[in-house]
Amino acid sequence: QVQLVESGGGEVQAGGSLRLSCAASGSTFANNFMAWHRQGPGKQREWVASIIGGAMTNYADAVKGRFTISRDNAKNTLYLQMNSLRPEDTAVYYCYLRHGADYWGQGTQVTVSS
Questions:
Q1: Torsion angles phi and psi, residue 47, rounded to 5
Q2: Which one, of 27, 68, 28, lies nearest residue 51 by Cα?
Q3: pLDDT surpassing 80 at residue 54
Q4: Which of 47, 49, 29, 28 is nearest to 38 (CA)?
């Protein structure tokens, strides 16, 4: 079965950095569409960043220039490097995989304090 497990969340002060990881298992996903989404308190889940293949990336305007999505295909792991974090980045971050169907991780909490 396909499983996605996020890690790396935590609490950080504004201006700080975190790196999220999403470990995928159950198949090889080197050429699949993967993404990060987030859901803040009282908000709708929103798309943050996506990657197709090894290097084709897209970002939501709110995070462009601050976040970097990448993947290590040898490890079947997706990353989200988050720099210059702001309080409005506070959310549960979810890993997403398109692999003939939609797959989601359990989410990891990111809290950015002022």
A1: -75, 140
A2: 68
A3: no
A4: 47
